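Batch manifest, entry 17 of 40.
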Amino acid sequence: MARRIYCGIFLLLLISLSFAKVQGQEMVMVKKGSYVPLYGSADKKPVQVNSFFMDVYPVTNQEYLLFVQSNPNYSKSKIKRLFADKSYLNYWVSDFDYGQASPKSPVTNVSWHTAKKYCESKGKRLPTMDEWEYAAMADAKNMDARTRKSYNQYILKWYESPKTYNQEVGSTFKNYWGVYDLHGLVWEWTADFNSIFLSGESRKDKGNDDELFCGSASVNASDLMNYAAFMRYAFRGSMKAPYTGRNLGFRCVRDIK
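Output type: C-alpha cells
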C-alpha cells in the first residue's frame, strides 16, 4: 500500500514537472554587477544592474502560437494597427498557423507592444536595455568579452549571414550565464529600446533596413572601435513600438523576489 502511494506521488511529481516545462521557458539567473555601456555614456561611468532571471532562449513560434490561441485579439487578423504594423506575423499563413517556419525557430515580426503583452501573460517582462546588454556582453567563458576580437568577429559575421531567423533556438553558443542566442539568430526587443535616440540625419529618417546601420551610432560611445555594438544601438534607435521585422524577436526576464 505504501509503495503504491509512493509511486503515485512520484508520478504526480513527474507530471507536474513536465507541465511546468511546457508552460514556461527555462530561466537562468544573471547575477548583479555593473558595466559601462558602449553607447550613451561618454563619461564611462558604470551602470549598476540588479540580479534577474532571463529566458534561456528567444520566444519561439510554437510558444507564441499558444499565446495567440489564448489571446486571439493578438492574432495577425485581429491585432489593432495601434499595436502592430501591417507586417505583424506576416510569414504566418493564418492566425494560428506559422506555416513552413520551424516551431522551434524564434518568432519574429512581433512589435514591442505584442512582445510586452506576451511576457506579461507569463508573469514576466521585457528586459531593460541595460539588462540585455549586461547579459549579452558575455561569451562562453567570460562575463565581459566585449574587448575580445573573437567575440566581435562572431557578431559581425552574424550580421553578414542571411536568414538566421530560420535557425532553431539553441543554435548558437551558451554564454557565461547559461543563455543562448543573444547574438546569432535575431535582434531582440528591450523594454526601453527608445531610451537612447540617434540622429536620423545619415539615414534620412526613413528607408530600408540597410540605412539603419549608420555611422552616427558611434557618437558618445565609450569604445569607438566597437562597430558590432554601434549597429545594435542604431537599429534600436530606428524603431517605434508598433514596428515589426523579420529579423526581430524577443525574450522575457523576471525580477528576483
